[in-house]
Amino acid sequence: MKKRLKLTIRTARALLQAFAFRLTAALGRRGPSRSCQIPELRTILQSCLGNVKRGVFVEVGAYDGEKFSNTSWLADNGWRGIYVEPSPEFAGLCRRRHCLNNVEVVNSAAGESEGEAVLMQMGSLSTMSASTFDAYQHIPWAKNQMDSRLEQKTTRVQTLDSILGAHSCPSGFDVLVVDVEGFEESVFRSFDLKRWRPRLMIVELCDVHEELNVTAELADSARRVRSRILAAGYQEVYRDHINTIFAVPECAGLQPINASRRSAA
């Protein structure tokens, strides 16, 4: 009963956000959400993409479509979006949050191959990575969330290539976000960067994270993803303790952003 009430409250909040943020966008005041982890995101997008009014984004690991989202403000401002979220509960919240926007919500995980997998659902820390799950058990703030919210769910897995193809995503789309709590390498293994060539990518990589990089398997996986992206011709324009932004060299006005926050590659 308590869980059902909580979900009802979150659903109502998502619908209120849908209307409130669209109104804010209509007034020309909708920027990145307060919970967005990259304070400079608006500046970075304008520097790298120019003044794009109706772009296309894909966010893998959408959660509820608002909290910690890098793209909800783009959807509110008229961009077309594809949200990929493995949890049925969170995918439902995402649909309600964006019920007035030009977005599609895919209730599936993105991974290396088609099939099924176990999702360790625990709010915004939900993961399909065993290494991440193990690491969280040794981090106090993460373990508290695990202890109170952990549920195991079986989820469908599709390759990102197949998801984009099924939803008629154009090659060279504007922004790709991949935030899947340590499962990033599985997403990129089957993702054809040469074919899709998103202009800007925001990827959660933990190889410089002060707590998560103590796990060698996680840190090595993140380094391999970073190397794969750089080998595909992308340039790193921003890095903090958990997020890295990569851009194609031909992006408008491409310049390193806030270089003081970037660590050595």
Structural notes for this entry:
The structure is a single chain. The chain has 265 residues and is an alpha/beta fold. It has one domain: Vaccinia Virus protein VP39 (Rossmann fold, 3-Layer(aba) Sandwich), CATH 3.40.50.150. The strands form two sheets. The protein has a seven-stranded mixed beta sheet with strand order 3-2-1-7-8-10-9, with helices on both faces. A three-stranded mixed beta sheet has the order 4-6-5. Helix 3 links the parallel strand 1 and strand 2. Helix 1 packs parallel to helix 4. The protein is globular, with a radius of gyration of 18 Å.
Question: Which properties best describe this structure?
Answer:
265 residues, alpha/beta, Rossmann fold, seven-stranded mixed sheet, 10 helices, 10 strands, globular, disordered C terminus
